Request: fold
Amino acid sequence: MTIEFELLTELQQTVYNVELTCQSCVDSVKQALSKVNGLTRFDIDLQNQRVSVEGITAPSTIIKAIQETGRDAIIRGTGQPNSAAVSILESFNEEDKFAPVKGLARIVSTNEGKLLVDITLNGLPKGTYYPSFRNSGDISKGASSTGGLFYEFPPIEVNEPSDLSGLYSGQNFISANLKITDLIGRSMIVSNLQNSINPSSLAGVIARSAGVWENDKQVCSCSGKTVWQERQDAQQHGVRA
Reply:
């Protein structure tokens, strides 16, 4: 089943941790965000290394703008409580086992019955890719065990040079008439074949994620690592967005 998509028109708030150490850092981030279309306001908190943003701009665009200042950024929350989800898109090819993550989908409920989906892909061969939600959340055999089609997305063109040599990245920012509760526990896949799955297709379970201000930890209680140490671990496994 294919659904209709439209540009996001409702304001959303997102919160990020940003590596801020001085007023110069604040000024650089402020200048970068001032150039981003679709933002209505933003606040930069030097003491807590936190940036909150309100607007209609994709989180991936905001993160990219901050990273271009030479500082990393981690999304900490988006939307209202119980209104956000995420899917980490992994390759199940043996050759990618040391850096399996090839994409990330951030999903936010903008109002009852509508979602914003921000899909970022990285480290893939150049081409057209076809994302979709699947009926099952079983990724034990990669995309091949995720069941039938639940909802289909427009294709994504992966044609921007990646930070990985010889590979490419792409992004799409769309809205859809769905509810978060319809998706939790299902899966998302990305295939390089239209209406088909193959061994190179990416797959990830759709799980709840934090709303705005619901996740303010600086140190993980499980690992004892700071958010930046965890970020480095994630990047080693392929997470870039």
Q: What stands out?
A: DSSP finds three helices and 16 strands in the chain.
